[in-house]
Write a structure and sequence with these properties.
- By secondary structure, this protein is of the alpha+beta class.
- The chain has a single domain, classed as Dynein light chain 2a, cytoplasmic (Beta-Lactamase, 2-Layer Sandwich), CATH 3.30.450.
- Strand 3 and strand 4 form a beta hairpin.
- Helix 1 runs antiparallel to helix 3.
- 25% of the residues are buried.
- The mean pLDDT is 86.
Length: 164
């Protein structure tokens, strides 16, 4: 499990981007997004020019949080896959490693079955990449190469005092 801040390295980002491009092409989706649970867009592939990516990322994270609440009410840990069907577009949302959200928007040019198949393969590959990122961060923390953030030392009380 990663902390609240995601550290992205260039090499891993390139691999993530390549995996999203591959998923976009192989699933025949309109667009593919990768979002963290805080609503931050990590990467995307496809037709993003007509989409407010910031809002989509935030709303997707909110959707995952809301369905997480529903899951707990039903005695489930979490729902890891969500699907919404619209008149023209559909959205497939899956949770990777309890932290990252993979979003695939597609239309009638493809099928839910193909999207699910390709998402499963991409999810496995992406989970591996994110596991490697976590290992790299832990290793760098252990060797002292990765400094703790200055902001990690600031408490809620410090922020309250600053604005009083």
């Amino acid at each position: 499990m990663m902390g609240s801040d995601l550290i992205m390295y260039e090499e891993e980002f390139s691999r993530i981007d390549a995996e999203l491009q591959k998923l976009h092409q192989q699933s025949n989706a309109k667009v593919v997004f990768l979002v963290d649970k805080n609503g931050q867009l990590i990467a995307s592939a496809g037709e993003t020019h007509d989409i407010d990516t910031t809002s989509l990322a935030s709303l997707t994270a909110g959707n995952i949080a809301a369905t997480g609440g529903i899951a707990r009410l039903l005695g489930e840990k979490e729902f890891t896959i969500l699907f919404h069907e619209g008149e023209k577009d559909n959205i497939h949302i899956s949770l990777i490693g309890q932290r990252i959200i993979l979003v695939v928007i597609f239309d009638s040019r493809t099928s839910l079955g193909l999207v699910r198949l390709r998402v499963k393969k991409a999810s496995d590959a992406l989970a591996k990449i994110f596991d490697e990122i976590v290992e790299k961060v832990e290793k760098e923390k252990g060797t002292g190469k990765l400094e703790e953030s200055f902001f990690a030392e600031i408490s809620d009380e410090d922020i309250d005092n600053l604005f009083k």
